[in-house]
């Protein structure tokens, strides 16, 4: 868990959010001379990727969601298959960038920056329960607990 003032986020969500933010900022900075087209496409790719990641999670756990269909809409509770979202967003962007080959380098750099920030935060965040001491009682050298 990562605490930002009164807000507490899981490390997974925080790292994904930071990676997405880094990607969108990098696209905006690297393509600022090209107009609003590239930024709009990047935002559309992110939204499409998030939707695909959620739908993939729902389909993977369909039995659970059939019991309570409205829980599909509980987006704040997590439940995303990130890899599916990234692949869908990348395929969609690749299709759109065929019409804009001059922007391919900028998008590749932005994607690398986004993925690097996502992975860095994910690796630096503590594992859940990693700071808990074991409950096992050990013996000292003199035989006491």
Automatic annotation (TrEMBL):
Alphabetized UniProt keyword annotations: Membrane, Transmembrane, Transmembrane helix
A molecular function GO annotation: phosphatidylglycerol-prolipoprotein diacylglyceryl transferase activity
InterPro entries: Lgt (IPR001640)
Keyword Transmembrane: yes
Domain of life of the native organism: Bacteria
Annotated transmembrane regions: 14-33, 45-66, 72-93, 105-125
GO biological process, one term: lipoprotein biosynthetic process
Record keyword Lyase present: no
Pfam families named in the record: LGT (PF01790)
Gene Ontology CC terms: plasma membrane
Residue ranges of coiled coil: none
Protein's UniProt name: Thiol:disulfide interchange protein
Organism of provenance: Cereibacter changlensis JA139
């Amino acid at each position: 868990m990562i605490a930002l003032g009164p807000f507490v986020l899981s490390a997974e969500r925080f790292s994904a959010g930071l990676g997405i933010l880094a990607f969108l900022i990098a696209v905006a900075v690297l393509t600022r001379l090209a107009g609003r087209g590239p930024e709009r496409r990047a935002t559309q790719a992110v939204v499409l990727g998030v939707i695909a990641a959620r739908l993939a999670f729902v389909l993977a756990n369909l039995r659970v969601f059939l019991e309570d269909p409205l829980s599909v809409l509980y987006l704040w509770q997590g439940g995303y298959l990130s890899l599916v979202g990234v692949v869908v967003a990348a395929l969609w962007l690749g299709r759109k960038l065929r019409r804009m080959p001059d922007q391919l380098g900028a998008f590749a750099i932005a994607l690398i920056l986004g993925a690097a920030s996502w992975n860095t935060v994910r690796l630096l965040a503590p594992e859940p329960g990693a700071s808990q001491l074991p409950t096992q009682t050990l013996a000292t050298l003199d035989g006491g607990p």
